[in-house]
What we know:
Layout: E1 36-39, H1 46-63, E2 66-69, E3 72-73, E4 77-78, H2 80-83, H3 87-90, E5 95-97, H4 98-109, E6 116-120, H5 138-144, E7 151-155, H6 164-170, E8 178-181, H7 205-219, E9 224-229, H8 233-239, H9 252-255, H10 266-269, H11 273-287, E10 291-296, H12 302-308, E11 315-317, H13 324-333, E12 336-339, H14 344-355, E13 360-362
Parallel strand pairs: 1-2, 1-8, 2-5, 6-7, 6-8, 9-10, 9-12, 10-11, 12-13
Antiparallel strand pairs: 3-4
Helix pairs in contact: 1-14, 7-13, 13-14
Amino acid sequence: MAAPSEAKASGDADRPSSSNLYKEPSESFIWDANGYIIFCPCMGRFGNQADHYLGALGFAKALDRTLVLPPWRTYKNVPFNDWFKVEPVKEYHRVILAEDFMQHLAPEHWPPGQRFGWCWQAPSVKDKKCGMKQGNPFGPFWDGLNVDFDDYVFYDLTYEESYIDKWKSMYPPDKYPVMAFKGAPARFPVAQRHVKLHKYFQWSEAIEKEAQDYISKTFQGDSFIGIHLRNNVDWERACEHADGLPTYMASPQCLGYSGADRKVTVKMCFPPKEEILRLTKNILIKTRAKHIYVATDKNPMIKEIEDHLKPQKVKVHHLDPWLPQIDLAILGQADHTILNCISSFSAFVKRERDISDKPSSFWGFS
């Protein structure tokens, strides 16, 4: 079943890599004396990684270091430009693909013997251990870039704006040219100040084309709404702990960052069938859409939705794409989407739609 739970392996041996279809303009690779940041996007699946990517980009900008764009992590390393264009990111700050960095700059400027891994640890911890490559995905991620570490830097600073001057003074680039973080130097969910950076993450030509081809063929110019259903058993269990919390996972996308507006409910996290049918019908009537596109990690509820909306004569579609990012790209183009407030996968769609001023709603909230 498709993986807006981000659980499906995000790759396919029979599919061409979009990095083979999209080429960056030729460029010379000149060492940046201001230094570099690279990190392992190893905390969670795609939605979480995307949040961390935004924060890491903002952190690199604040430190005025070039961000080495690491590959996305699934069951393998996926080059950044397989899924997103690089040039738009450069409009915000200096970046370089990890593959280019390792091939053109690392052999001379960050050679074996001078590679330090960076790990956060509280000052009270005496027996400091980093574990940069311990376990999966950490080991396979760095192995995919042919990186081993010779020593470690332990720090206890946070990535908030108030600490930027300390970062610069304690870790100058002439002494620490490359900061290779075990995890992303960023918050989850993404900090409010970094949400706007999503506009620099634009789909690769390959993903955009596949999504647009499906939209054109399936909807043929008619309006459609998109819905994101998280209804596998693992998500249900996770939602059991959500009720009454001020924030949970990606909930700031609908509840706000203050934590004072409303509390998380199980209905927001794991909406019952009645809520799904109610809100879908309301949005359908409001938009007068002809089609519904369902992205889900388990049950698309096609029959239930079609039966409930027989008077509206709506057509319900479910692609189950080979790559979950196709679901995201399609949801981003819908006339209206209904999303899951707690899901970081939904949060990616919400940020993209906000940039284009497209309306979105949330289960148990709207």
